[in-house]
Amino acid sequence: MAESKKVLSVIMGGGRGTRLFPLTKERCKPAVPLAGKYRLVDIPISNCLNSGYNRIFLLSQFLTASLHRHIQKSFHFDPFGAGFIDILSAEQTEKSNAWYEGTADAVRRNLVHFRRHNHDYVLILSGDQLYRMDFGKIVDQHIATGADVTIAAIPFPISKVEGLGLMRVADDLAITEFVEKPKDPAIIQGLAISEKLEARLADQSNEKHCLASMGIYVFSREVLREALDNSMKDFGKEVIPALLGKKKLFSYIFEGYWEDIGTVKAFFDANLALAQPLPPFNFFDRSAPIYTHPRYLPASKVNKCNIDHVVLGDGCLVTDSSLKHCVIGIRSILGENSNLEDVVMMGADYYQTAAEVLADQAAGLPAIGVGRNCRITRAIIDKNARIGDGVSLSPEGKPDGDYAHGIVIRDGILCVTKSAAIPSGFAL
Hints:
Layout: E1 7-12, E2 33-34, E3 38-39, H1 42-50, E4 55-59, H2 65-74, E5 84-88, H3 103-108, H4 111-114, E6 121-126, E7 129-131, H5 135-145, E8 149-157, E9 166-169, E10 175-179, H6 185-190, H7 195-198, E11 209-220, H8 221-227, H9 235-243, E12 249-253, E13 258-260, H10 264-273, E14 301-303, E15 306-312, E16 317-319, E17 322-328, E18 333-334, E19 339-345, H11 354-362, E20 369-370, E21 375-381, E22 386-387, E23 392-393, E24 401-402, E25 407-410, E26 413-416, E27 421-422
Parallel strand pairs: 1-4, 1-6, 4-5, 8-12, 14-16, 15-17, 16-18, 17-19, 19-21, 20-22, 21-23, 21-26, 22-27
Antiparallel strand pairs: 2-3, 6-11, 7-13, 8-11, 9-10, 9-11, 24-25, 25-26
């Protein structure tokens, strides 16, 4: 713990989250629900806490109310551990009254807050990734190599590196070149790691690998200050390339599961992968738990259902329905004879009383949840959505775009937006 006191953790809360819209219509990216009961922000926070780093700053600026509530209800520190999670939103100062203009700009404008805490290293993390990492290992390597900056990197086969920031590294892991999302096959081939580094990888397939940046950085304190003493706005596109040849940059190779949940499809696929018999990410690892809001909900109740490969959150009521390859979030209610396949249902923030349900019916609104005799496939149902009886929803054969009653199709996934009301008998 003495070493951990030297590290401050900074989680990037993301911008508008346009690629994850409509899930970010009423919340910022870190607050998007995940895996039936968590939020995306729980992943980097839990990784920090499991690594012994409990001084955490969360930088965000768009639609932060939901994120604030979740952090306040989920994470409490005893007064003797000196731990905290501070949410730092863009604020007007004597020097600036603008929004954050990028990852580097956000960190630059909060250096004044970091200086108030004793530290030698700053760990910079993304707020929209699913992975489990012991950050102590990357910090230890950073210290051992005498690095100024260490960048976490994941090995990808050359055929799968499209859209990723790649780095060329020497056998001692020193970074000699950084290329943001190259498309030229010749350039990509030239960035392949050496045979010596290939021999270190767990993946011993015949295909060569490149190292892709995970957007996770360790900066020595003074190096970070110097690197941001300019107007550069983004770490990956500007700050890191500008440091090459001037500072000691090293790569830290990470070979575990890692998924960048930056798009609706990536979010959908990562959630449904958790319903597999052996999911790629293990929420059941007791040595490194994922922490979240303790809601004290009752156990879920399932009556006469056909369930196949399903993750079921706390406090659900599912009656006489068929669920196949689904993630069902907290407080979800499903009526009789409904059929859901390849569905991520985020659940609800509260239970309705009988009086509230009757009042909604009188106003022509369905109750929160999924009604009777519904057929829903390949869909994300956001929180507090109301789906009436006999509703049929599928994106099959339909183009991306906005549809009636708060339905959006994005990346080929049908999304029922937060608090949307789908009338009985509606079909899409």
